[in-house]
């Protein structure tokens, strides 16, 4: 006992329930309790102080333990400041995002399909692909009733809101709920501009949020007139027309600054459903919508009742004099190259082509006047360097857009002999080289002259002029098929050519455009000539062409020999193509008269003509020296502005034209009455003159004592051949 009283008194609080000193309790479970308190944000000193004060019954205990601790209130304030800072950062990020993804300049660009306008070589628009886009308008310079018409029907409180119209959204919501569907929109003009210029047409919530953000962005940086100007400059009005200026010209033939109230109301009414309400196809619907807009203008106070009642239903242009054709043979052909030259087309581009409008009209006229019935025709005219200045791919583009000048592959007949004789000239022969015009058999194949006549030894000049099949076959065998193919490839023929002797008679199929370009290689003296519809630029050349020049010069002596041969043809099978100036060319007729050709050049023009049926059916009486040669001559006379030949007559001895013989029924003649149907013979001065059905004239010696006529043509060999053979 003494020992206990001798110990100093320890003033420790005592737990009245467990009779354990508080210090001892904390000593026993200090770590678990500390962890629990740390989780609740109470530090150790505060914990002990709170417990001790509670034991003593201190009234100030609530200041630290009861209610909210001061430190916790400070934490809430800190989080508020952090939230404000995060909001500022997000606002800065949003502004930066809008500046990048929604630049104000983009609101001037109409979201239209790519549009390319093709012009002729003089800059005159000749065709358009894509939308019609008008120049921008300035809302501040438009008559008040024009802008008021759009605001009355689209956004009546446009001048007062900040990009969105809560009243309009609420009204639209009520109407849509009452109707059970989406019947009315609450978008403002600013929102519509944001959607049209920057966003797609999906109806997701995210897109709508972006639309609102961009609307605020536009309102913050642009004036109301600037927003309205951008909206009116790119809104869609139907008929593939974008922008108020284009629409006013398209429908009313006037500038938007001169539109009356009714016209402005009609255009404002189109915005809701431009494709369905376009007045060119739904005038009644457009007029009803016009009156609805006028009523909205009266209701909004933009018009008095008397002014609204005075507005009349508007008329639109019955025709569109400024509209450009959307499809022509030349435009279809040149469009891929135009797109390549224009690069990425986002709105509108204008590309100048090589087309000559005068020559194009001439080409269309001579095809139209050719008197064709069921037969089709095509013509290509190009400069010697390959610039295509006129192209007609058929009698009627509206009925058949198939381009027979570029897409069709047909047997060229004797026009292919150009490559046979070029190979012969390269091998050292000349137009005076003698050739054997007599029957021949080559590996079981027996080519025949179509008229059944064989003249024996004749110069190549005469063989080319009369288009001798046997001479062409002999030359192909002598110089080699590979050399003939090489000559064709050198001049630009890219279509498959079989490795056989029959190619000399034109059994390989080619296009009119490619064959005409091959003749241009001879005319130009350099080859190959690449036909093109755009002015050549350095960027159009491949790296190989840039390094090598892309073309080679034909030796002068070879070219002179070829010109000699081509000019002789116009004294033989091609006499219907004779001009009053130097001209060169070659006829061609495929087997059974399925295809008839004339390719030639004069002056700076190289022109190819083809006539035939799309189904490759025979054309009795059709031959290259007839209708195609006449079309070529008529085009050249007009294009070169020269006088026509008074009477193309052949005066050489033994001249005949087997192509002029009509071996079929005249009722099946694919050509009309453009050529006088005159047949007969005149005797006099010891000469026999004969005029064929196609207008051809031949003179042969004799009269009443003339020798009997030549036999009928022999049957055609199945391996192919050319009906031109033996024409001279």
TrEMBL record:
InterPro entries: Beta-lactam/transpept-like (IPR012338), Glyco_trans_51 (IPR001264), Glycosyltr_51/Transpeptidase (IPR050396), Lysozyme-like_dom_sf (IPR023346), PBP_transglycosylase (IPR036950), PCN-bd_Tpept (IPR001460)
Annotated ranges, domain Penicillin-binding protein transpeptidase: 378-633
Positions with biased composition (Basic and acidic residues): 1-18, 32-42
Keyword Ribosomal protein: no
Catalysed reactions, as listed in the record: [GlcNAc-(1->4)-Mur2Ac(oyl-L-Ala-gamma-D-Glu-L-Lys-D-Ala-D-Ala)](n)-di-trans,octa-cis-undecaprenyl diphosphate + beta-D-GlcNAc-(1->4)-Mur2Ac(oyl-L-Ala-gamma-D-Glu-L-Lys-D-Ala-D-Ala)-di-trans,octa-cis-undecaprenyl diphosphate = [GlcNAc-(1->4)-Mur2Ac(oyl-L-Ala-gamma-D-Glu-L-Lys-D-Ala-D-Ala)](n+1)-di-trans,octa-cis-undecaprenyl diphosphate + di-trans,octa-cis-undecaprenyl diphosphate + H(+)
Domain of life where this protein originates: Bacteria
Keywords, alphabetical: Carboxypeptidase, Glycosyltransferase, Hydrolase, Membrane, Multifunctional enzyme, Protease, Transferase, Transmembrane, Transmembrane helix
EC number: 2.4.99.28
TM stretches of this protein: 79-100
Chain spans, region Disordered: 1-42, 687-728
Positions of the Glycosyl transferase family domain: 136-297
Pathway: Cell wall biogenesis; peptidoglycan biosynthesis
NCBIfam families: PBP_1a_fam
Assigned protein family: In the C-terminal section; belongs to the transpeptidase family.
Name recorded for this polypeptide: peptidoglycan glycosyltransferase
């Amino acid at each position: 006992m003494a020992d206990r009283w001798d110990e100093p008194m320890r003033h420790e609080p005592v737990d009245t329930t467990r009779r354990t000193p508080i210090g001892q309790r904390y000593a026993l479970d200090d770590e678990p309790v500390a962890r629990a308190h740390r989780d609740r944000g109470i530090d150790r000193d505060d914990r002990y102080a709170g417990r001790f004060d509670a034991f003593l019954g201190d009234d100030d205990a609530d200041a630290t333990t009861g209610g909210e601790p001061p430190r916790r209130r400070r934490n809430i304030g800190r989080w508020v400041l952090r939230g404000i800072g995060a909001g500022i950062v997000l606002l800065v990020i949003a502004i930066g995002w809008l500046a990048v993804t929604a630049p104000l300049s983009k609101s001037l660009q109409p979201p239209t399909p790519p549009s390319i306008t093709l012009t002729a070589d003089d800059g005159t628009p000749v065709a358009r692909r894509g939308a019609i886009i008008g120049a921008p308008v300035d809302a501040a310079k438009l008559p008040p009733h024009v802008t008021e018409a759009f605001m009355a029907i689209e956004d009546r409180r446009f001048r007062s809101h900040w990009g969105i119209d809560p009243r309009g959204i609420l009204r639209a919501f009520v109407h849509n709920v009452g109707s059970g569907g989406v019947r009315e929109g609450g978008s403002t003009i600013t929102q519509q501009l944001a959607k049209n210029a920057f966003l797609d047409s999906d109806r997701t919530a995210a897109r709508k949020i972006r639309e609102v953000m961009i609307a605020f962005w536009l309102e913050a940086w642009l004036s109301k007139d600037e927003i309205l100007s951008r909206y009116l400059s790119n809104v869609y009005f139907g008929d593939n027309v974008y922008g108020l200026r284009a629409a006013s010209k398209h429908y009313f033939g006037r500038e938007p600054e001169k539109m009356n109230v009714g016209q402005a109301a009609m255009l404002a009414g189109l915005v809701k459903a431009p494709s369905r309400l376009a007045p060119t196809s739904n005038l009644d619907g457009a007029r009803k919508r016009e009156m609805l807009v006028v009523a909205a203008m009266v209701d909004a106070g933009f018009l008095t009742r008397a002014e609204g009642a005075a507005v009349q239903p508007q008329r639109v242009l019955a025709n569109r004099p400024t509209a450009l054709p959307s499809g022509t043979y030349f435009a279809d052909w040149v469009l891929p190259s135009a797109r390549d030259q224009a690069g990425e087309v986002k709105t509108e581009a204008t590309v100048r082509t090589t087309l000559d409008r005068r020559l194009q009209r001439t080409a269309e006229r001579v095809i139209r006047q050719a008197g064709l019935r069921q037969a089709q025709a095509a013509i290509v005219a190009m400069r010697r360097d390959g610039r295509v200045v006129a192209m007609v791919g058929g009698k009627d583009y509206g009925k058949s857009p198939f381009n027979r000048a570029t897409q069709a592959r047909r047997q060229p007949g004797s026009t292919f002999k150009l490559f046979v004789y070029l190979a012969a000239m390269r091998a050292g022969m000349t137009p005076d080289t003698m050739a054997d015009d007599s029957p021949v058999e080559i590996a079981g194949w027996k080519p025949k002259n179509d008229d059944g006549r064989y003249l024996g030894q004749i110069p190549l000049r005469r063989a080319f002029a009369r288009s001798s099949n046997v001479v062409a076959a002999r030359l192909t065998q002598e110089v080699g098929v590979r050399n003939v193919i090489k000559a064709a490839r050198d001049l630009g023929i890219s279509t498959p050519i079989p490795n056989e002797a029959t190619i000399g008679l034109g059994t390989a199929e080619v296009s009119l455009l490619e064959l005409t370009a091959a003749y241009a290689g001879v005319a130009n003296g350099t080859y190959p000539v690449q036909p093109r519809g755009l002015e050549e630029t350095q960027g159009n050349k491949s790296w190989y062409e840039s390094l090598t020049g892309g073309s080679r010069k034909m030796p002068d002596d070879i070219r002179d020999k070829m010109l000699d041969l081509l000019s002789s043809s116009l004294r033989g099978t091609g006499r219907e193509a004779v001009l009053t100036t130097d001209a060169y060319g070659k006829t061609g007729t495929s087997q059974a008269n399925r295809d008839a050709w004339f390719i030639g050049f004069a002056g700076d023009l190289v022109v190819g003509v083809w006539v035939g049926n799309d189904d490759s059916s025979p054309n009795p009486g059709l031959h290259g020296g007839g209708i195609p040669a006449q079309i070529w001559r008529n085009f050249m006379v007009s294009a070169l502005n020269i006088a026509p030949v008074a009477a193309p007559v052949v005066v050489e001895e033994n001249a005949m034209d087997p192509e002029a013989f009509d071996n079929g029924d005249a009722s099946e003649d694919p050509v009309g009455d453009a050529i006088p149907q005159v047949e007969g013979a005149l005797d006099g001065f010891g000469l026999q003159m004969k005029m064929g059905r196609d207008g051809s004239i031949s003179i042969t010696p004799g009269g009443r004592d003339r020798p009997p006529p030549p036999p009928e043509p022999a049957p055609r060999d199945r391996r192919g051949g050319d009906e031109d053979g033996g024409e001279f």
